[in-house]
Amino acid sequence: MFHEFLSVATLIGIANSGVRLATPYLYAALGEMFGQRSGVLNLGVEGVMLMGAFAAYYTVYIGGDPWLGVLAAIIVGALMGLLMALISVTMQAQQGISGIGLTLFGVGLSSLLLKVLVGSPIGISGFSTWKVPGLNSIPVIGPIFFEHNILVYIAYLLVPVSLYVLYRTTFGLKIRAVGQNPEAADSLGVRVNAVRYGTVMLGSAMAGIAGASLSIGLLNIFQENMTNGLGFIAVALVYFGGWRPLGVLIGALLFSTVNALQLWMQVLGVPIPSDLAVMMPYLLTIVVLAVGGQRIRQPAALTKPYERGE
Amino acid sequence: MNNSRLKIASLELIDITKRFPGVLANDRVTFDVKSGEIHALLGENGAGKSTLMKVLYGLYQPDGGEIRIDGKSVTIHSPTDAIARGIGMIHQHFMLVDELTVTENVALGLKSSRGPVLDLDKVEARIRQLSQAYGLHINPKAPVWTLAVGERQRVEIVKALYRGADLLILDEPTAVLTPQEVDDLFATLNQMKRDGRALIFISHKLHEVVAISDRISVLRSGRLVDTVPNQGVTRAMLARMMVGRDVLLDRPHTALTPGAARLVLEDVDALGVIGQPALRRVTLEVHAGEILGVAGVSGNGQRELAEVIAGLRAPTGGRVLLDGVDVTSWTPGRRTDAGLGYIPEERMHDGIVQEFSVAENLVLQDYDHPPMSNGVFLNFGAIASRSRDLVRDFNIRTPSIETTTRSLSGGNIQKLILARELSRDPKVLVAAQPTRGVDIGATEYIHQRLLEQRRRGTATLLISEDLDEILNLSDRIVVIYEGRIMGVIAREQATAEQIGLLMAGVAEGR
Question: Do A189 and B100 touch (CB under 8 A)?
Fold first, then answer.
């Protein structure tokens, strides 16, 4: 049994799954990173993902193009981000609490909409695999990296794009300043709350795509609470990645690989209780936060609403 | 720099009134400044200086009065508006983002020549130009958190100049500088004045105001007392205008014979907040009836020194002795009971519990002893009567002993802490920055109390960044630099210049 598990074909399969499964983590965690770098902790990622997943699924379900589904997920995500920003930036509610509220809202509404609009979930045809011509025929590398649907490739492209936005643009400079010292930014005419609205809505739109990458990319179906804690892991990944795009990438790959390993072990019938295997990514989350949490410096103004003071 | 380019020839604030709930912060204040002039704004904390400047900088909207630039009435809606009109402000608490580089801090909030993409290379070149022109030594690539306080201030000045500030407001700019750095700053300010810029210099340090300004305006309780030319004014006159009565500026210091060594540190090493070495083989002795002043620029180990003595920070080497007994491993509570008094630097965080009442804060050290409690239950009667006595004796201005402590002014909170610590008649007192941010009246009172405690035989370690305070009160002075004691100087031989050199890490001519 183990020699079968360790065959080259299997290892390539695991690696391919690992690369693919990192997709929702990447969208959600890179988006969340922007919010946190500007000082807003959005724990509503899970709910936003579910809503994005449903919006994309439903768009395709009623006959829309998958790209239209992504657009729907972006719009729904951004609107939920607007709600989050309204509550936590303008009304200055406790960010941890309002985010959990947003999650519960998304969980409830998405399953309600599923029941009302669709009934019992049926599969759809979302994005199909697009093998990158030429590159996919490279031995080993090709099947691992270049046989995915388009949303997977875009997720990885977002890593350098995020780096560029954060460190090379005026918007990125404002984000970093607002998350560290909003008073200083304000004194230079940076509109602190406007920046935070921007990042929270951007982050939520990306969480929406993360949901879509599940419902019309990886799984091609929508099920009640299908994200299953993935949104919270994405929040943890931002901490794990030290609020940096490359750190987030490493974290996402680590988690998705563990996840892929766990799935393949079940598929191949490795004699480990499946519940234990399913636990692995979550266990890893706890370990990572406990070990990594102390030495990484978080944005100084994280979770602190800004009010112009004395 | 070319004068014709300047946007402000004169600026007037006329009858500015600003109210806050329950306070009239500015009451019809009139103030003006011209191109090529340094106009000092003098007043105690709470006199309304900062409010007036925040009105000018667009952070507050006035409830009455008007602002005129070159005779034309203007409304300044926001700091952005102020910056666009050529007004810059150097805040007392630096408005810098520590994690960003100097260049990034300067570029923040500005339009880039490349649209959405940053043009840090161009910004950097211009920073180098400006630093050259005004003798501001700055490395544009350095992250701000690596810079010393004086350097950070220079970054603030460059930031304002970069934004084309023709009128510069400097809010207590010298508070954090060594005497030498103050000289450098004054040279820069004079250069800016020669270039035709208008400067508003806010301070409560009389000799600095006299040294740098062309005209001086004094505020008291939100009102303008007077505006006078610098020629012919004396520090005593200014102090009287500030406080409204005569003030003892230099206290006669009666020599006392110090007694036995009550606080002794032997080769103490300690680490700072982020694990850096903060104290290095610190050895000192404080005798009964003596005030030992510890001078130094902020962040050179003063905080750690106070915490090690108070028992809040474990030293990594060496011993602390209280009255000859090794207390190195004792808890703070045990040290307190053995006769240690502690006035912490961060009075709002370490000195009081902000949400507690005045009475509760006054008995924080004694609540578990009779008569305040019988070991289980608190005796509220005893607590109330003790608190009322202390409020009266120490002149703490509070509506009642039940008032939440955080609502008191800084000076009164400091008097509360002083009352709590001194009423125990400590054998050893550690006073860290006892008058920082406290108005001149309360400062005078606190100094009197410290000197009285000295007469009663307390050994006092006075840690202060205010060199005047150190020189006025101490019998002996040590200078701390990068966690090392740089030298011990007797009061009679101490000069500001010599201490300033030690504060900057320049050792005595050995």
Answer: no
